Amino acid sequence: MSTQTSGADAIRPARALDTASEARLVWLRFGRHKLAVLGLAIVALLYLMAIFAEMAAPFDPDHSNARLVFHPPQAIHLIDHDDDGWHLRPTVIPYRLARDKVTLAATYVQDGEHHTRLRFFVHGDPYRLWTLIPMDIHLIGPAEPGQTMFLFGADRQGRDVLSRIIYGARASLSIGLLGVANSLLLGIVFGGLSGYFGGRVDWFVQRTIEFIISLPTIPIWLALAAALPKDMSPLVKYFCITVIISLIGWTELARVVRGRFLALRSESFVTAAMLDGCSRRRIIFRHMLPALTSHIIASVTLAIPAMILAETALSFLGVGLQPPAISWGALLKEAQNVESIAAAPWLLLPGAAVALTVLALNFLGDGLRDAADPHGH
């Protein structure tokens, strides 16, 4: 009796998988891709940080202090000691300026006699959340007003690098999303027309794609970005850079959509829809596109890192977003010369943020691509 029961219990999960929806199967297979799950967690954290940048940043990113130029990064210590004994609370050791006895150069040395206590959700620099809600609550900061901390150091104007990286995430990550959205629209439209109609339409679209692919990407981006007026406002330039990046990034997605449409148009459900008198628009958007949704999602996820790298390259080369706009590429521009890197190597930390984001998105895209066809594995 127990043998029969255990056998029935073993059959139930298999039957549940047989009747599971495609979305359920995709999610189950995605969950077994550990790096993809890690990438999803990192990407979600980065975008949450970008959305709530004003609250996540410890200080105003434009607040400068001429007395704290190139302040070194401070490590967080979880154990603190005072006259009352040892305590479990986060602190940082402040630095003070001193003169080197040999070279007389100004250097930062730790002031071991004082500790700066840190707290979560502290009152600090006032801001407007999403330019609408006046607030002054920051996720983390010094417990006492007037104190400073530089977890990622300070730049040549004494501005907090961590706060500027967090604010820069909003521009760099959103350009990736908006650029991919434009590329998605162009890729689906032209790729779908090419794969569905074939013939002259297919020939014309494919020759256009081949021409765009043959163009050197970086020089084209530079030429288009350099053609923008220099007195353009940062917000308008932001949207123009997004359009410029997406005008070249749609070709790969269009080829993916074309290939899938060529395979789907001979399927029985598409033939049945044609015989049933469905319009071409209904066949494309109601029957064919939903069949390749998972593949499009995977392609889009893998395309976002390319968009982020493109914005970073343009801003680093001086033709993308420029101050007072803040992006990871604009921040890296401050580390262009050897003197700055030698004096403050932490100015390269925006590059680490770019690398982390690109790796996380690639892991996420690989996991979605592997999970897109669960029946085939």
How is this structure best described in words?
The protein is α+β, with helices and mostly antiparallel strands. It has two domains: 68-155, no CATH class; 164-376, MetI-like (MetI-like fold, Orthogonal Bundle). 58% of the residues lie in helices and 13% in strands. It has 15 helices and six strands. The chain has helices spanning 2-18, 22-31, 34-51, 53-56, 161-197, 199-214, 217-226, 234-249, 251-264, 268-275, 280-288, 293-316, 328-332, 338-343, 349-371, and strands at 77-82, 85-92, 95-99, 106-110, 116-129, 133-142. The strands form two sheets. The chain has a four-stranded antiparallel β-sheet. Strands 3-4 form a two-stranded antiparallel sheet. The longest helix has 37 residues, at 161-197. The model has no long low-confidence stretch (mean pLDDT 83).
Distance between the amino and carboxyl termini: 35 Å
Beta-strand portion reads 5-15%
Q: What is the count of distinct domains?
A: 2
Q: Which topology of the largest domain does CATH recognise? A: MetI-like fold
CATH architecture identity of the largest domain: Orthogonal Bundle
User: C-alpha Rg, in Å?
Assistant: 27 Å
The CATH superfamily of the largest domain appears as MetI-like
**Helix/strand-derived class?**
alpha+beta
Overall pLDDT, averaged? 83
Main pleated sheet: 4 strands, antiparallel
